[in-house]
Amino acid sequence: MPSMLHEVLVDLIRNNPELLIPLLRGKLGALELRGAHFGTDDHNYSQLPNLDADLVLKVYARSGRLVCALIPEIQLSIDYEKERAWPAYQASTHRRLNCPTFVVVIAVDPVVARWACGPFRTGQTHFRPIVIGPKHLPIIVDPRHARNNVELAVLSGLAHCDEPEAEQIGEALWHALDQRSEGRSDEPAEGRSERQSDPQPNPPSDRRYDLYWDLFLAAINEATRRHLMIRLGSYQPQSEWGKQLYAEGESKGRLEGLLEGERKGILEGERQGLLEGERKGFVKGERKGERKGRLEGKREGQVAALTMLLQARELSLTPTVRERISQCRNQKTLQQWLRRAATATHLDEVFES
Q: Does pLDDT of 19 surpass 80?
């Protein structure tokens, strides 16, 4: 299903086909004819399913002669189905209008623009659309230039929304849309004067311009949007689409905030629990270590006493015997060996089972 951005851009080209002339200069000689003008093909239909182009523009010479046809295609993402559909659009329109026909892809994303250049193999031909991408769209940061070319400024803003100049583009676009909307407004003079005296910038009143601005705000990143709003003042979406998107974003943000708060709460609880556990563990460990230390000290005393007793009685104390005594962990066994060492005449009597 086509997105709102796709529908708006198709409508933008339908209502302002002349903006294609400078963008296609050097690519399509028919548009350089003096007096060339556009007409919309109102009979764009196909008996085959899914072969209707969104828009077909007819280019006429000053005399009224049909020179060629353009099929503008707004492409927001890579769609491999279009590699087969575009040649079909061209062939169907060429057959129906009997004039040179060109598919013109308008892509505001550079990756999509590179893909759209083709060529696409259709069997006997290699199909290459004419592509208008970000590199063909000027960066418009001058409000006067933007005001005189509003639709081109909108395309420029969407194509360069990730560029370092995005904030300047947005400021120029806002002023252009605001002033154009002021000029087209049907509101009473009193209302306009009140609105002009308001210190906070107001979004355009023309619904189409409202939508242009909301789409641009949705395209730029959060940091640029925040800086732009600081410069231009507080803003609430004006188009129905923008209001719905804003409400969905607010709801999503609330949910994400709730989940993030829950996650942080769990982490903080784990941290507090870990500290409490460490404290209790330290106390238990200290007590256990103290007890183990006392037992180990007693064992080492028994080992030392047994070794000294065997040496005093001149019983054969070999390295193997020393190792056996030092590795013994059973205090009862060490105590038993000590009692035997006091009366034994031979080493084997001490360690017999």
A: yes
